[in-house]
Amino acid sequence: MKITIFDYGAGNLHSLAKALESPGHTVRFDTDLRGALDTELLVLPGVGAFAAAAARMTGGLDETRAAVRNGLPCLGICLGMQLLFDDSDEGPGAGLGVIAGRVTRLRAAQVPQIGWNTLEETSDPAFTRAALHTAYFANSFVCRPVDPSCVVAWSTHESDRFPAAVRVGNTLGVQFHPEKSSAPGVAFIHEFLNSVLPG
Amino acid sequence: MLTRRLIVCLDVRDGRVVKGVQFEGLRDVGDPVELAARYEAEGADEIVYLDITASAEARATLLDLARRTAERLFIPLTIGGGIRTVDDVAAALRAGADKVGLNSAIVQRPDVLTEGADRFGAQCMVASIDAKWEGGRYCVYTHGGRVATDLEAVSWAAECARRGAGEILLTSIDRDGARSGYDLKLTRAVATAVSIPVIASGGAGTAEHAGDAILHGRADAALVAGILHDGVVTVSALKAAMRAVGLPVREAA
Description:
The structure holds 2 protein chains of 2 kinds.
Chain A (H helix, E strand, L loop, with lengths): L1 E5 L7 H7 L5 E5 L2 H4 L4 E4 L5 H8 L3 H9 L4 E4 L1 H4 L4 E2 L12 E5 L7 E6 L6 H6 L3 E6 L1 E5 L5 E7 L2 E9 L2 E4 L7 H15 L3
Parallel strand pairs in A: 1-2, 1-3, 3-4, 4-12, 5-6
Antiparallel strand pairs in A: 6-9, 7-8, 10-11, 11-12
Chain B lengths: L4 E9 L2 E6 L2 E7 L1 H11 L3 E6 L4 H15 L6 E4 L5 H10 L3 E4 L1 H5 L2 H10 L4 E10 L2 E6 L4 E6 H11 L3 E6 L11 H10 L4 E4 L5 H9 L5 E4 L1 H4 L5 H10 L9
Helix pairs in contact in B: 6-7, 8-10
């Protein structure tokens, strides 16, 4: 499978690329969202601010929304998950809007949330298969979907319960960093890859 | 529920892990990538590389090391030492660090914290504070503990948080290497003054000390170095001791 990481200019992408690598898959980067769509799996990685990332997406926003809605497998990590939603309290700009809802600040005294948080009510089989029970988070904002039926894992920071993962068809968004969640996190990525393999 | 973290620190010089007392008699103890991967396998929650060379030539070596590490390590990596500007932050993140630790540079120019947080998010900006008890207060030191400043550690930590730091890495100079336990008074004073995570550093001598730093010092995480590298304790013994006092801890796979 041809995997493309949309590189919007922030953060460590080495671990993610390495975690995605496996026999039968090729991983490439593209700094242009339209160019990134020439792929079998689009990855929206996770470091930076919403407004800056949204600005980098304006060029290919409509095409990407259409492609993902038509079934192009997509993995959004942390900020990448938030970009699947409509908009964010963090800053101006439009997300892809493939999942209806808004991104808002964590309702907690200690923000950002940094560390390993337990995953609750996991319903996607990838979590059980990968034995991923605790994952690494580094975020100040979380997604609030209009329809929570897309949530396939929850986490709680202080008293704020928020979606740790959402899944709609071939689109998976994770608020945590699977590529930083040790061996179970890497296994989780591979379970997702297997679940969207064509044929 | 957020678990409490055990963070392993490796002192790096010219691309190798070294150890020594007060930077004297440094001894090569191995390849950072191998050691970091081993600590991950043993259950460490994060790795910190502290670059103690910080010369211009060493910078390229460190970035190359970050790159090689990021391809092997699947837990967060923080790089500290010699990072001065927002461009240095960008280069370190780009090379493979997930967070950067800044110490002397933010004392000289605190705006770097805000600039880094605006561009890359607060979660990757770690304010590293070295403190020493002096004249009835905790005095902030820079340049690896060699240069005293006029700053008081608790108020400086609060200012770092206000300016965009996502975490405080708090090292007690008095306890560093003493193995008599973390400075719980210092840790508690800073942890209650800020609403961002505090990592306690300096003084771990037994497995129980890490739990003390979190339970009694109210830190979110404990950083250990020497006692692990010397084989005094193991990562699993440290985490078992944290668990034994009732702290939520991640189970290693």
